[in-house]
Amino acid sequence: MKRKPYTVQEKLELLKSTAIEKVANSSATYSKEFKVFAVGEYLSGKTPMQIFVEADINVNILGREQPERCLQRWRRIHDKFGVNALLEENRGVRSSGRPRKIPLTLEEQIEQLKQKNEILEQQVHFLKKLRGWE
User: Fold this and answer.
1) Co-location of 33 and 69 in the same domain
2) DSSP E strands, the chain
3) Are residues 47 and 111 in the same domain?
4) 81 and 107 co-located in one domain
5) 7-52 pLDDT, tens digit each
6) Which helix (H) or strand (E) holds 37?
7) 3-class DSSP state for residue 32?
8) Residue 3 covered by a domain
9) What is the pTM of this model?
């Protein structure tokens, strides 16, 4: 469910916390340091709500379920890729599918075609030998 846009006053209130870097119309961007800190605090036993309240984030503006969703997402990233993944910006980075092909230089293309030709010649030679044409 999409959240209603923040008012100007709500944006200013959220930006008072050093844990929030910027606030868009209906989302907040948290600092990388806060993400690492929050995951560490969670692993030491604090609840997501406690962590956000102690960071002076107004959870009434964000929504009461937002701390849990954020910590769930950050923990998943932390568990899968480690602490450094929380310190990097990965939005827009392609994460699945086939890797992009790097264009080959002319020399590499020629070498690749030579190798392919050699394989085809060996196959033809084998088939001729198999059928007794030689």
Assistant:
1) yes
2) 20-23, 28-30
3) no
4) no
5) 999 999 999 999 999 999 888 999 999 999 999 999 999 999 999 9
6) helix 32-43
7) helix
8) no
9) 0.65
